[in-house]
Amino acid sequence: MIRPDFVLRSRRVATPEGLRPAGIRVAGGRILSVDSHAAADEGVNVEDAGDALVLPGLVDTHVHVNEPGRTHWEGFETATAAAAAGGITTVIDMPLNAIPPTTTREGWFAKIDAAAGRCSVDVGFWGGLVPGNARELMGLRAAGSFGFKCFLAPSGAPEFEHVSEDDLLAAARELAATGAPLLVHAESAELLGRFAGPAGSYSGYLASRPAAAEVAAVEAVIRLSRATGVAVHVLHLSAADALQPLAAARAEGLPVTVETCPHYLTFAAEEIPDGATLFKCAPPIRERENRERLWKGLAEGVIDMVVSDHSPCPPEDKRLAEGDFGAAWGGIASLELTLAAVWTGAEERRIQPERVVEWMSAAPARFAGLLHDKGAIEAGREADLVVFDPGAVRVVDASRLHQRHPQTPYAGRELRGRVTTTYLRGEKIFDGGRLVRAGRGELLLSG
Are 3 and 401 in contact (CB under 8 A)? Predict the structure, then answer.
């Protein structure tokens, strides 16, 4: 019998069968077995988490690291440190807002070079679909891209243009045969309005990106999947009105998956002050009633997962001084806080911990094709583990976050739950409020 390196024990371990007392035997970076709480190997170190929850490492498939080219916005060192502090052991990086974007093989290798040796958690990469790069897709897939992201409306980054229906159809036909998913920022450019101000008006910004624009785009990608067989993934769903066509697509058996984000589940448009540009994102944070319908969509399984869409920028690009929603960069900085934010909302709605684990670990691991190694505490998986104190209460102090810029709309908000220890393949990388092993992450390639 293989001798474990150590045993992590808790009275509340989140296994695929549910929460139970258990001892997790770890050797060589993988889980040997999940045994009874009392089981012990003579002379083997036992790390006892007491009554804290032990969760599988979270998998966040929607992170904008921005490096190379915009490392002053965020970079691999700071983003992956924030991930480790938030219990996220795997991130999949978006193809923008790096310069160059990951839309060519040259851009791909620039991204790999930027990430190598700088990551504290495991990192994989999405490729990008933009006008004119259809011939690049198979090369990017062969290089290790997990799939391809596109925009149906302007992205805000001039080097990453949105696609036409012809671009989308040509790519879908090519990708359908490979199994690579097509990730879609689903807002219809034709239905977006012009932000007419005044500059600080959140209601004006919200009106410029109506729910109807999301619904129309979601219906379009459902038709695309039906016509070509391509697996499509709806990114950062904010409009609950889109749940009905998504549920119908599921019932039809179409390969459609859906994510939402903590900010759509936490904040409400009625609570956002004018000028508070830290809350600007696209699609926008909508009304309170819409938020509750998103929670219902999660509970009913129409929405598969919750991921961060961490998209930070420097203070000057958020127009914090002017409070200008028209000019501010649209993106929420939240990577380290996603688990606590979702946990807080789930507790308020009496949702069981097992559902949170499904939404934030198992489902995104499954979506990225990583379920062999990630997403669950069971024998054979990598020992990516998180010790989480669900009862800890804190008021978010942005200056203590590990991301590059100390700004987030969660600043000053009370959240429940705190990560105390994060293990990556059995090694502690975050413990006692600090990063203890930097640069231990691996670069993940599809296939």
Answer: no
Q: Assess contact for 384 and 250: CB atoms under 8 A.
A: no
Residue 16 maps to a domain? no
Residue 412 has pLDDT above 80, yes or no: yes
Does residue 46 lie within any of the structural domains? no
pLDDT (tens digit, 9 = 90+) per residue, 299-328?
999 999 999 999 999 999 999 999 999 999
- Provide the CATH number for the domain around residue 300: 3.20.20.140
Rounded to an integer, the average pLDDT of 257-270 is: 98
Mean residue pLDDT across the chain: 97
The whole-number pLDDT of residue 435 equals 96
Query: Does residue 354 form part of some domain?
Result: yes
Task: Report how far Cα 98 is from the mean position of its chain's Cα atoms.
Answer: 17
Q: Domain range spanning residue 84?
A: 70-367
Measured distance CA(253)–CA(258) in Å, rounded:
14
Cα 183 to Cα 95, 262, 402, distances in angstroms: 11, 19, 28
In the block, which residue shows the tokens 């090519």?
A: 174
Structure tokens at 397: 């102090």
pLDDT at 411: 98
Number of domains in the chain: 1
Confidence of residue 279 (pLDDT cuts 50, 70, 90): very high
Q: Cα separation of 444 and 124, whole Å? A: 5
Say if 6 falls within a structural domain.
no
**How many C-beta atoms surround the C-beta of residue 293 within 10 A?**
16
